[in-house]
Known about the structure:
By secondary structure, the protein is of the alpha/beta class. It is 29% helix and 18% strand.
Amino acid sequence: MSVSAPVLIRMHERDNVAVVGNLGGLPAGTVLPGGVVLRDKLPQAHKVALVDLAAGAEVLRYGVAIGRANRDIAAGSWVHERLLDMPAARPLTGLPMASAAAPAAAPLEGHSFEGFVNADGSVGTRNLLAITTTVQCVAGVLDIAVERIRRELLPRYPHVDGVVGLEHSYGCGVAIDAPDALIPIRTLRHISQNPNFGGEVMVLSLGCEKLQPERLLPPGSIAIGGHVRLQDEQHVGFGSMIDAVMATAEQHLQRLEQRRRQTVPASALVVGVQCGGSDAFSGVTANPAVGFCTDLLVRAGASVMFSETTEVRDAIDQLTARAASPAVAQRLVDEMAWYDAYLARGGADRSANTTPGNKAGGLSNIVEKAMGSIVKSGSAPIVGVIAPGDRLVARGLNYAATPASDFICGTLQLAAGMNLHVFTTGRGTPYGLAACPVLKVATHSELARRWHDLMDIDAGPIADGTATIEEVGWAMFHRLLAVASGQRTWAEQHRLHNALVLFNPAPVT
Ligand code: CA
């Protein structure tokens, strides 16, 4: 490995720690820019004390206290999670409400993509045959049918991008009338309405399940492109069930095959942003670039959703201040309060969020992770808050209240109407969704090199100074338009996708 000059990344002038940027870390004895000498060997992305920190002193990163030193820490020492006591969660009272919403930025005009326009005015980035299901019991039949449709039917329908089986664990064995059952049911309903399915879904049901098709998709919610119920007497054996699904799918495919992409303004994009497998670079490179791109998208009239309640909870005062109105600020508070109570009911709190991988990647606790996560939201005013499983209504920057779990967040963003997904990762995850293109952004170049056929964008050059946040953000914006127009992501090329995972806070039976 070549010996390169030590690279330190400090996020805010108040910060008394900085992150090591060098690949492979830095050895003890290294003289840092500014003259501090490293007392410990520091891994890449981990924090070093820039000054002597007395026990009890606030440790500042992003200009905020991410914890207090629980012993004296000398300048040049490695500041890791065992040396920090985490601050208490910010109370949900006395918050600044809509006090600092940024003035509307100049509109960004002239950007467009090639999309599939639906009857309700929404626009798909893909033309997909979706088969929704009422209950997990049908999942095995669905899997086999989807594979046969892909193999035997799709080659004859070149204008159809794929077939998606909407499999899930809900539908029976659940307290379906419990108040919180509203969340998984509306999530499934709204996923069926995702713009990438063209305003029409096929239904595969069993017959005896609690979640009957009329309850899942009431009249007026979405066009049903055929319905196969496995317990119907007409089905004699497994082969007959598959034949019925194939015949129904063929008719649906004939309708989808007529559709063509047309030029639509960038404002038709509904982009969900999230992170997973984060490291200390997430909040330095990839997430700030996403935040810059978020601002571009909002200026272009598009909608962007950021999410992950436990990862923004510690920045609630920043969010309520940025709300476009006191009513939106109050909705943010309501969602945080609901989630605090949900976690408390399960005997947990927000500190349950960080993973061993986060800590190995240099993130000491949820406060530090949150400050690096929230920058994905850029600087635009927050115009809407979407409850779990609900649909986006206000065009612009929205907070979609979801757990931080990658799969549950992605599932809920799909329900909200997402037609494009941006996902940042530092530790690395092969995450993908069948229903929507996912662009994965590496937080550092070593991951981008090692996972060269999994990561779509490398934000690493921001750390070593060879690219700016603005440059990577603009490149991301143009790439998003290309992918929205049909360019396939790595996850799509490999057909990598994770399961839909419902958020079900209600009891099972
Ligand atoms: Ca996540």
